[in-house]
Write a structure and sequence with these properties.
It contains twelve helices and twelve strands. With 381 residues, the protein is of the alpha/beta class. The chain has a seven-stranded mixed beta sheet with strand order 2-8-7-6-5-3-4, with helices on both faces. Strands 9-10-12 form a three-stranded antiparallel beta sheet. α1 packs antiparallel against α8 and α2 runs parallel beside α8. The model has no long low-confidence stretch (mean pLDDT 95).
């Protein structure tokens, strides 16, 4: 038995994408940058994938796409690709991913100030605080679409409205790694300048990311080499991986509404079952849900009072049930969950946090088995 409920960390290829991608590996093995007919066919596959990605977020055809190794490289391409001046300011939420926060710490050495918006107990910041933080010095606003640890959906259209109302010239980046292929997000409504995506979060091939960039903006490259991708990201592109990325983007775009209903069902089954867990004496346990019902149903983070999430995760992992204890990128740390402590959650409760995240491959039967196994682990804790 194997039940995978850590889809916010990485997702498996769906059968449809796997079948398509396998064919592309055999077909598009050529170098798309060479000057022959076969290479041109590989370039056509890349061009098609770029069109599929733009369509998925309603981006116009002049929006540029830079292919990267994943979300982290996308973020770094934006943060280190811009020209900064001492005194420039960046506004983020206090719950951004380390792949945003850590590059910004490096940029701070250039005299750039990072302003982190505080969040309330639900993990949300206010547009009022955002407006108050804006100034003539604000060079960039970088806000994630879906928070990766608790699933809060940020009001990106609201941010654009404030930017317009204030006449701000700040550039607008969204970390859409958790949202792409799941969340309805409109490039033209939000008028983004940058959008970061990563294949392994939406059932696409791994080790590939796509950074969408306003065509009026030129970023400095992180790497130097053969001049591929107009010198923005040199290196030989993998046409098969990119074709699979585009296929998954189109497939998810077409089916995300119907799949959302399935994910909601899984979330509801899990939420109800967690509320019914009992201890050895039959007493209902105190389960604290950190993901409220306004969060994306793809993520459900909770704590069981008196129990450590890491210990429960190891017990379940030993029997083939895979869950998380927060961001997979920081799972090796021994400190309380920083997202939850920023929300004002008690450190003991935050230390016990468990994240269950759902994918399109999961079934109601798997959730029921997970709940049964979790109850067994609690009884033997």
């Amino acid at each position: 038995m194997s039940i995978y409920l850590e889809n916010a960390a990485s997702t498996p290829l769906l059968d449809e994408t796997l079948e398509f991608y396998t064919k592309q590996i055999a077909r598009y093995f050529g170098n798309p940058h060479a000057d022959n007919d076969f290479s041109r066919e590989c370039r056509k596959a890349i061009t098609k994938a770029e069109k599929q990605i733009r369509t998925a977020v309603n981006a116009s055809k002049d929006v540029n796409i830079i292919w990267t190794s994943g979300g982290t490289e996308c973020f770094n391409s934006v943060f280190f690709g811009l020209e900064w001046n001492a005194g420039d300011e960046v506004i983020v939420s206090s719950l951004e991913h380390p792949a945003t926060n850590n590059p910004l710490k490096e940029i701070a050495a250039q005299g750039v100030k990072c302003i982190a918006l505080p969040v309330d107990k639900s993990g949300r910041f206010s547009l009022g605080d955002f407006k108050a933080a804006l100034s003539e010095k604000t060079r960039l606003v970088s806000i994630m679409s879906i928070q990766n640890e608790i699933g809060v959906i940020n009001d990106l259209e609201g941010i654009r409205k404030v930017l317009n109302e204030t006449g701000s010239k700040a550039l607008f980046h969204t970390d859409n790694v958790q949202g792409f292929g799941k969340l309805k997000l409109d490039w033209q409504k939000c008028r983004f300048d940058f959008m970061s995506t990563a294949g392994h979060k939406f059932h696409a091939p791994n080790s590939c990311g796509a950074l969408l960039v306003n065509s009026k903006i030129k970023l400095k490259p992180l790497f130097f080499g053969g001049g591929q991708q107009k010198g923005q990201r040199p290196g030989t592109q993998d046409a098969a991986v990119i074709a699979g990325y585009g296929f998954a983007a189109e497939f998810n775009h077409k089916h995300k509404d119907e799949k959302l209903k399935d994910i909601l069902e899984l979330n509801n089954i899990c939420r109800t079952g967690l509320s019914e867990l009992t201890d050895n004496e039959g007493k209902v346990l105190d389960v604290i849900f950190h993901s409220d019902e306004e969060c994306t149903p793809y993520v459900l983070t909770f704590s069981i009072k008196g129990y450590q999430g890491a210990i429960i995760m190891r017990f379940l992992s030993s029997i083939g049930v895979y869950i998380g204890v927060g961001s997979a990128c920081s799972a090796e740390t021994k400190t309380p969950n920083k997202t939850l402590t920023a929300m004002g959650v008690n450190k003991d409760i935050a230390y016990g946090a468990i994240r269950v995240s759902f994918g399109w491959q999961n079934t109601p039967e798997e959730i029921k088995i997970f709940l049964e196994k979790l109850q067994e682990v609690i009884k033997s804790y």
